[in-house]
Structure formats: C-alpha cells, structure tokens
Design a protein that fits this description.
The longest helix is centred in the C-terminal third of the chain and has 35 residues. The chain is of the alpha/beta class and 481 residues long.
C-alpha cells in the first residue's frame, strides 16, 4: 500500500461512519426490531432455539473480522445468524424467567440513549439526564412513602442495588470501614430462607463472608416475623452485631411478599437496618389492587426496585432508593476533585457519589419515556393484568387432575407440579417441553421437591395461551416413559 493509500484509509472509514449515521442506515436496525415484534405477535413459530450451545458456537467459528463491509450485509447476518435463534420474550408462550417482554416505546428510546451516550457520574457529563434521574427517583420514593430526604440511584439491577444498600448499612455500622477495612468481630446479615442469592453474594463482596449470613425460616414462603424476632433475640444474647435484615417483596421462586409491616416492627424493636429487596415486587406500588402488599415499605431504610422486571423496561434498569439519600453517599466515602464538584454539607448534583458504577448509561430516559407514554396508572394496569392471568392459571390447574398446585399466587409467578411423576419426571418434562419450541418455562426446588415455574411477563399472553401451555405439558408428559 502506498503512502497516499495509507493516508486515504482514514477518510474511507470516516465516510463509513457518516453513512452509518443516517436514517436510512439506522432504519435497517429498527426494521429488524419491528419484525421481531411483529413476528411474535400472533404466537406462532418457535419460542426458543432447538440448537444446543455447540451448534450455535459453530456458526460463529471465524477469525476476527478485518476491513469494512456493507452495513446491509452486517444487518442481514444479524437477522439470519443471531435473531433467528434468540429467546423470543415477546412471544406470548414465553413464560420463563423474570425478564420482561419490553415496552416498545422504551425499546425505541434505547437508540436515543446510545446516540447521546451521556454518562451519569457527574452533572456536567449528563445535565438533562441527571435531572431526569432525580425526578424519576423522586416519584418512586414518594410512592414508597419516603419523605423529602429520600434519594437514590439507577443501577444495573437488583443485585447491584442490594449490594449498594448493604454497603450503606456497613457504613452506618462501621463508618471508617471504607478507609480502614473491617475491624473486630464481623457482623451477621439476616435474611429469609427464600431470599435472592444477591444477599449472600453481597456478604461475600463486603468482606463479611457468606458464613455470617443467617437464614430465618419461612412460613407460607415468606419470612416469618416471629422467627425473625427469635433470631435477633438470640444474636443479641450472643453479643453478635447485625448489619441488616433483608426482607423480600416478590420472592423469586413464588412471587410471595414478606409482611413488611411486621418485619419493620421487629427491626425497629432491635434497632436494625431494614433493607427490602423489591426488585420484582416494588412495582406493585403502581397498582391500586396490589400496593397493599407493600404496607410497611416506608419503614425500610433502603429499597431495591427493578423497572426492567414488572415495569417492563428493556435491560437494564434497576434502582436503589433510600429513605435518607445521605445513607447512600456515606457508603462511598471518596473524593475525586477531577470529577465530583460539591461543597461540604451540600447535596451533590453529581450522582456518581451514590453509585457503585462510574461510567453509567442514562437508563432513566427509557423509564421516563414509558411513564410519559403510558402513565404510571397504565403501567400499573399492566401489572394487574399479568397478576390476573396468573390467578387464572392457578384456577385452570385446579380443573386438571394431571397437575398439583403448590401455592396461591400473589403476583405473576406460579409454581406447580405434574402429579404423575417424581422430581426427575418434572425436570425432564420441562426440558422436553422447552425443546419443542411450543413454549418456555422454568423450574425450581421448593421444600426439597422439583416444581415447574411460570412467570407471566408479557402483556400479549392471554388465557388461551395458558390453556395451550397446560395442553402442551400434558402431551409431552405422555411421551416420557
């Protein structure tokens, strides 16, 4: 290549960048996403891929790409090699994990978020988005019953939110731990036996250790307030410090809600920090029919909340809200004059002082767009719709002798078993049904037994799809020896 050709190469790359920045170019990606929505609307076609990991890996067994190629070719391969075998969460027969079929308006806003690429740690890097995040967090804090001192931050999800909340609890328990590390006997972290694994993970990350997590027995899939009181009494008698109690609003396995009012009373009696993992269930605050399940939430010090679950946002969009925002900023006792600009005693306009992340997307924009488009009442109505469908599924199961109901649903999650087989049978049933492409569900273990688990996260799902689910499971069950 000549010197002239070498010098010209950057110009061709700049030309490619500019051509990619047009509406015509971007429209190709939007068409692909719109086709995904359209192709899943009527409930036909496979829900997931029939291919295993090895077969999919073979498709991408290639050297690192070099040189430019036409964007249309790239989008074409995205359609044939990627979109053809994704899990279709917008398919009404997808009834699997707690990941939403996202609201289209929020999906389109992702393009805007990525285009402006404003990062959220300091106001000067994201002036409008910072104000929006404070406003949206403020709305959610009001719904939670918190006052003017409340505040929070967007997070990558409930795991980061709960970790940050417990980091704040550590700062309250041992204020110099950030600089000096943990000193003296380690505290314990108390949680219900069905708490999300993020709680134990946080204990490991914080240097407390998972062996210092104390699981409180459940009653009806919820943390037992009486057992919690007995546990805290025992720990007090042993002279053990308690970092925090973690209650759950919307348990992962069953969707059950802990009695937050009763749990809060126990925590206040013992002077213990209460964190509520509401990653799944805090969105019930938007529903007039279901918000009573969160009675007592206002007595928590911190709350984790994932809009990318029951507010149907695309990943990722999590939140941590604190009754007093200073509890969060105390968790990150750092100064960075090249980044954060505040005077002592002032509430910082820089959100990086309350977040584990530094570089962070302006995910608040898609939540704000969805609220502007549908209203909080509209999103609350969708929450009620998904919960009502789950109640309908519970009733359908009662009419079929092939199935055993495990619990009455409190939200959009329901566990049940095929009554004609043992744990291995139910596991095989789930795997064969999912491979068929006719639907997709998960499973878990409750009281030592393997159960089938459904989570209804898609407003397109209707009662006819739930009947198809049960018919499909019965048909597959008949093929298992």
């Amino acid at each position: 290549m000549s010197t002239r050709e070498k010098e010209a190469a950057p110009e061709s790359l700049l030309a490619a960048l500019e051509s990619d920045a047009t509406l015509e170019a971007g429209g190709q990606f939007l068409e692909l996403a719109a086709a995904h929505f359209s192709g899943t609307r009527d409930g036909t076609g496979p829900v997931s891929t029939p291919l295993d990991a090895r077969a999919l890996a073979t498709r991408f067994d290639e050297p690192l790409p070099m040189g430019t190629r036409p964007l249309r070719d790239v989008v074409g391969r995205l359609a044939t090699d990627v979109m053809s075998d994704v899990n279709r969460l917008s398919h009404p027969m997808y009834l699997g994990h707690q990941v939403s079929a996202p609201l289209a308006a929020a999906v389109w806003s992702e393009v805007v978020i990525a285009a402006v690429n404003n990062s959220m740690p300091v106001w000067e890097m994201s002036p409008v988005a910072t104000v929006l995040e404070e406003r949206v967090i403020g709305w959610m804090a009001q719904l939670a019953g918190f006052g003017a001192a409340a505040g929070g931050t967007f997070t990558s999800g409930g795991t980061e939110a709960s970790f940050t909340a417990l980091l704040a609890a550590r700062a309250a328990w041992q204020p110099d731990a950030w600089a000096s590390g943990l000193r003296g006997p380690l505290p314990v972290l108390v949680h219900g036996e069905h708490a999300h694994y993020a709680v134990a993970r946080a204990a490991g990350e914080l240097g407390i250790g998972t062996s210092n997590c104390v699981a409180v027995p459940a009653r009806d899939w919820r943390l037992s307030p009486a057992a919690l009181a007995a546990t805290l009494e025992r720990l007090h008698a042993e002279g053990r410090a308690v970092l925090a109690v973690v209650a759950t609003a919307g348990h992962t396995a069953t969707g059950a809600f802990d009695d937050l009012e009763a749990v809060a009373e126990v925590c206040e009696r013992f002077g213990v920090w209460l964190h509520v993992d509401g990653a799944h269930g805090a969105s019930a605050l938007l529903s007039p029919r279901h918000r009573h399940r969160l009675k007592g939430l206002s007595r928590a010090r911190t709350v984790a909340w994932d809009p990318h679950k029951m507010m149907l946002m695309p990943l990722s969009a999590g939140m941590l809200i604190a009754r007093d925002v200073n509890d969060i900023t105390a968790a990150f006792a750092q100064r960075a004059p090249y980044l954060f600009h505040q005077r002592d005693g002032e509430r910082s306009v820089d959100l990086g002082t309350r977040s584990f992340q530094c570089s962070r997307r302006a995910d608040v924009i898609k939540v704000w767009v969805a609220l502007q488009r549908l209203g909080a009442d509209g999103i609350g109505a969708l929450y009620e719709h998904l919960c009502a469908l789950t109640t309908s599924l519970h009733a359908m199961l009662g009419e079929r002798s092939a199935f055993e109901r495990i619990h009455v649903p409190e939200s959009n999650i329901l566990c049940f078993r095929h009554a004609g087989g043992d744990d291995a049978f139910n596991q095989e049933l789930r795997e064969r049904y999912n491979r068929s492409g006719k639907g997709w569900i998960t499973s878990t273990v409750l009281d030592g037994r393997r159960v089938l688990r459904v989570t209804i996260m898609n407003p397109r799902t209707g009662e006819e799809h739930l009947e198809r689910l049960l018919d499909g499971l019965e048909n597959v069950a008949g093929t298992i020896a």
